[in-house]
């Protein structure tokens, strides 16, 4: 049967006859048709539902609204309907329709700023709380060495450091290549070819290798810590661990931090080697410096302290990356969206913290004359 | 009239056979229960009915459409005719309750915003939530409220067919009975057909017209609940022991 709305005007009354199905899919058309009708000349409106085959609750809601508006404007109306189901549906809607619909509350500017500031404050406090708990767990571990989870540490070493070796090697190699290539062009004009070795050795070992390694690890392992621990929090795995008496700090947090702190200097060492090999290749091709010449000059020009300065930064960077990643994971709330948000924050904050820390190191080492 | 018919359905996960030739028939207006011990594949069968999972062989026919090899167009039409309530609600966490319920209406109908708002507030009332809950996010409400909101979302498009996966689990007894009452009322008013997986004995006795018990990869019983006491299956005997 065709679904339709017939508007039939009699002498003193207007009939709205709904035919076929009246559902939310044709509700809009009917609504517009009724809106354009003029009820004023008639003293009675008849709503004829007897030809309906199907009538859903959305349609009933609309009908309820329509009859209410008739009542408000004191227009007389009559519903013609012999089906019990339709009458019941209308009754159901009348019973459960609410007059008021709650609106979303709009916050004003001052309120928003205040709330943001307070959230920030709470965030900082909770980070310190996290650090405090971390510190107390560490103290506990120093007293109870047998409680250290060696197996988890070994697992994390493989997962977040050994498996990162290829990408760190490749990135460092390319950075060495690029730095040497840019430097070679400048040095050639002065005929100072051999100084490429000084430039590469110092810049790579002191600054570039630690920073590149830290950025790759923050993007790769830091983010995975956040996502992993965040997902564990949502699935209540963390709660389950707590109730079974396994302290998540002991089982999840510290192994990750310790693993990364152990491995970061080694990763930086690998990065040093790969970057310098990259530089060596460019020096050989572009500046005619043989490998032997490069190594001879390297031994004379580069002090061992430059190497140590780079390596020493490793554990600090590792600590920052791992704690921020894990803290962000623990900060995940009970919905999926906050995993994404916190993972982004974790990477951005970790990289920022690493660069900040590097700046502090720069100032300290320079003032110490290292 | 049969709206769902399952014929010889076989489901295998790698080497593991879950269903070995299931046959059942669900008629219009029926509240049909799938029962069985944990791990017997009730939820798997439900997921196969709503096209979330493929079965290995056999056929499932819903509202005249065979699900294996259904065209994308028909599948989409079918999806608008049913509502699904997942065990844990599965509300979209980035949307408020009202937005969750309105989503289907916004996407599939041309109704005005005001009309959608009224429909949403009606659905919120009918499942027993408060209007003030409408603007909360799923992470801010309890498990029982999530379930009610998810039911409201499943009912948003006035479906002819409702799939419920353990609808009363995680609800307090009062809400659970209200839920049963609501399902019965909706069936009577809207001619809804309901397929549900349930472990709640009270709800099984109160609401179900017909049940199928899956055990050992097969249907061991299909029919109404009164006759079940004559069955000799291990699961049926232990499960219904207290009440037979």
Keywords:
heterodimer; A: alpha/beta; Transcription Regulator spoIIAA; 3 domains; 12 helices; 5 strands; elongated; B: 244 residues; alpha/beta; 6-stranded mixed sheet; 4-stranded antiparallel sheet; 8 helices; 36% helix; globular
Description:
The complex is a heterodimer of chains A (370) and B (244). By secondary structure, chain A is an alpha/beta fold. Chain A has twelve helices and five strands. In chain A, strands 1, 2, 3, 4 and 5 form a five-stranded mixed beta sheet that branches. In chain A, α5 packs parallel to α9. The longest helix of chain A is centred in the last third of the chain and has 40 residues. Chain A is elongated, with a radius of gyration of 36 Å. The mean pLDDT of chain A is 88. A six-stranded mixed beta sheet of chain B has the order 6-7-8-3-9-10.
Short description:
The complex is a heterodimer of chains A (370) and B (244). Chain A is α/β, with parallel strands linked by helices.
Distance between the termini of chain A: 91 Å
Low-confidence stretches of chain A: none
Number of strands of chain B: 10
Domain count of chain A, please report it.
3
**Terminal Cα span of chain B:** 31 Å
Main sheet characteristics of chain A = 5 strands, mixed
Largest sheet of chain B: 6 strands, mixed
In DSSP terms (H or I, runs of 4 or more residues), the helix count of chain A works out at 12
Kindly name the structural category of chain A.
alpha/beta
Q: Which segments of chain B are poorly predicted (pLDDT under 50) over 5 or more consecutive residues?
A: none
Strand order in the largest sheet of chain B: 6-7-8-3-9-10
Question: What's the helix-strand series of chain A?
Answer: EEHEEHEHHHHHHHHHH
Radius of gyration over C-alpha positions of chain A, nearest whole angstrom:
36 Å
Instruction: State Rg of chain B.
Output: 18 Å
Mean pLDDT across all amino acids of chain B: 85
Structure class of chain B: alpha/beta
What's the overall average pLDDT of chain A, rounded?
A: 88
Hey, roughly how much beta strand do the residues of chain B contain?
25-35%
Instruction: Please estimate the helix content of chain B.
Output: 25-40%
Number of strands of chain A: 5
Question: What coarse outline of chain B follows from CA principal-axis ratios?
Answer: globular
